[in-house]
């Protein structure tokens, strides 16, 4: 056995939450397990009435982080008061090092900085905590993030070195032999440009929109409800729940639409679409221009809706433009820094430095 790893997420974990952070945490840990490490995850208990009740009872009877379930080849320890009792979990599991997946969680960062355990902070948030600018001189930490966009944000706060480590995206999970005729959207949340998506579908009634997934914990948000109701009224919109196998939707897609209105830390879905040879039409927010590269079209989020519909139509009506963007999408996805072998070496280098092995 190479060693023990504890992966920490700032909120719930699979299967309850299936966002980019949780998937990245799972894939990163599973890679280490493939290399001979043993691994576990610490997370917050499910935020349902039953989940909270079960966690509190288990904590009272058995102690902190005593609610356990299994995802693939690792155990997941959850607690109602996560991250307050991380020290006790460290004592129990005795990991050689920790990987903390960071997303706007100052309480978690405060705890880990105080513990000063060998930790790789893997940042997935567009907002960098000022706590990273006040690290102890003898800290045992390393830092990574998903994009140069986040790296620049981090460097404005901290003098610590930080590496760009993109998510591991195995090509076989996203490659398709053929694509379809739908304008694909993943998660029509307001922050992801939900209102613009609705308006684009209204103005392009002759185009099929395939809308997939969404954040379950926001389903009662009034803005989310308004967008979902508007989508239901449009005959050219097909609404589908979250899917495990992205190939099932990529094979139906002509292009991917990502009009995010907030700064994306990476844009995982865009990177996945490029692997499938699917051009991306995205906003200029955060890391999206960096992630999309030459494999799509970047539009200023302040541009009128006509700019979005014109560019989308051009992907259907101009075969030369579309063919070139498909080739560029594939070429962008094949950059060295996006390859699994490159990313895995970065992770292993950090593991050796942190664990001393």
Automatic annotation (TrEMBL):
It comes from the Bacteria. The keyword Cytoplasm does not apply. It holds the Pfam family Glyco_trans_1_4. SUPFAM superfamilies: UDP-Glycosyltransferase/glycogen phosphorylase (SSF53756). One of its GO terms (molecular function) is glycosyltransferase activity. Keywords: Glycosyltransferase, Transferase. This is Glycosyltransferase involved in cell wall bisynthesis.
């Amino acid at each position: 056995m190479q060693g023990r790893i504890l992966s920490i997420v700032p909120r719930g974990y699979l299967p309850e939450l299936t966002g980019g952070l949780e998937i990245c945490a799972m894939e990163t840990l599973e890679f280490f397990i493939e290399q001979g490490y043993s691994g576990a995850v610490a997370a917050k208990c499910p935020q349902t009435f039953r989940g909270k009740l079960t966690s509190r009872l288990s904590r009272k009877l058995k102690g902190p982080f005593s609610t356990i379930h299994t995802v693939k080849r690792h155990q997941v320890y959850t607690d109602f008061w996560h991250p307050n009792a991380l020290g006790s979990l460290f004592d129990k599991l005795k990991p050689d090092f920790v990987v903390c997946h960071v997303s706007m969680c100052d309480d978690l960062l405060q705890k880990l900085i105080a513990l000063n355990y060998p930790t790789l902070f893997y940042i997935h948030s567009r907002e960098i905590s000022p706590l990273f600018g006040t690290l102890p001189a003898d800290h045992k930490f390393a830092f990574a993030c998903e994009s140069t966009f986040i790296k620049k944000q981090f460097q404005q706060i901290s003098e610590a070195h930080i590496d760009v480590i993109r998510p591991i995206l195995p090509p076989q999970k996203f490659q398709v032999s053929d694509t379809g005729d739908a304008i694909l959207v993943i998660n029509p949340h307001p922050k992801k440009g939900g209102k613009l998506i609705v308006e684009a579908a209204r103005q392009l009634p002759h185009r099929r929109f395939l809308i997939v997934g969404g954040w379950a914990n926001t389903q009662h948000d009034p803005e989310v409800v308004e967008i979902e109701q508007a989508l239901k009224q449009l005959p050219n919109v097909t609404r589908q729940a979250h899917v495990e196998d992205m190939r099932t939707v990529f094979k139906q897609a002509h292009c991917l639409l990502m009009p995010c209105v907030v700064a994306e830390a990476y844009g995982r879905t865009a990177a996945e679409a490029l692997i499938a040879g699917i051009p991306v039409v995205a906003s200029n927010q955060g890391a999206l221009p960096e992630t999309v590269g030459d494999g799509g079209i970047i539009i200023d989020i302040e541009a009128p809706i006509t700019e979005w519909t014109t560019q989308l139509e051009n992907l259907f009506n101009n075969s030369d433009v579309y063919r070139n963007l498909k080739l560029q999408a594939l070429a962008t996805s094949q950059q060295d820094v996006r390859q699994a072998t490159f990313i895995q070496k970065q992770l292993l280098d950090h593991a050796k430095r942190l664990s001393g092995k």
